[in-house]
Model the fold of this input.
Amino acid sequence: MRKFWLVFAQTATIVFAGLYLISLFRSETPPPRANVVTVREAAPSPAAGAGAASYNTAARKAIPAVVNIYTTKQVAQRPLSRDELLLRRFFGEPPAERPESAVNLGSGVIVSSEGYLLTNNHVVASADEIAVVAVGREPLAARVVGTDPESDLAVLKIDAKNLSAITFGKSEELQVGDVVLAIGNPFGVGQTVTQGIVSATGRNRLGINTFENFIQTDAAINPGNSGGALIDTNGNLVGINTAIFTKTEGSVGIGFAIPVSLARQIMEQIITKGRVDRGWLGVAAQDTEHDAAVRGARIMGVQRGGPAELAGIHPGDVVVAVNGKPIPDTGALINETAALAPGTRGTFGVVRNNKPLSIPVEVGRRPPPAPAK
Done:
């Protein structure tokens, strides 16, 4: 009996010791956390770019075709101060200084695998050297194929293979409210994508270019974005970012892009002919008043021997259409005339003494702009 109790006591001791150890380990493991309140938790995220609110696919499609552009040009040295003039008077001329060099930056779009790029004229104007940096590539020297200051466009060429060219969209199909993305290199921070909508189309009379037909957007465009891409949600090019309206040198939600339809026409002329030829009428015109019975461009003067005079257009005539396309103002008259190839005939609808007339006009070649002073 005594042996039995001894065995029982040992067994009980082992069992209680085991239970104690188990309770000790359990006390170190915190219990599952209970929610303080019932909340709705998000479902697992879809694959990148698959969400309805993501534009990752469009951005990834266009990004390789957008480049950074760096230009340098020699600039005159600053005038000497009074103190510097006195120092030179007493101590003679210092060693000759090197000309100062200014560095500018912008963006561009690869439009052909052959190495052609579109950018703004003001990005490369007067540049002595131009370097292009594409995604994942070393800087490459670029040469200017041609420029068109009146639309602020320029075509560059680089020597490289296997380039990722942008896909052209249809800017004429854009509608107010459509989502667009701007891609460029703002302030030199690196390639950046911003998102907004089309705020307006056909913007003109801004005093930016001679020929204006801008897409307005609130996608953030800043210094350095000039010449970059404005794309739709499919990653297709619809515009070349060119200017902003701002009082702070930064984006305030009013940016402007040149429609790709216009940019393409200019690019093809520059590549094939080295210049842009535009139709010319030889008139001075102004808008009709808002309360006038006829809306259009009133002819105020006709150049002697010019296309309009030869065709029989008179001062006082109101141009209301060109080849059947309505002309609401002088801006539209300039743009539609310029779109005609020099030497071709266009039908100009005019109203003279309240009577409609159709006058065929062989347009001339628009004179080149006066050089900047």
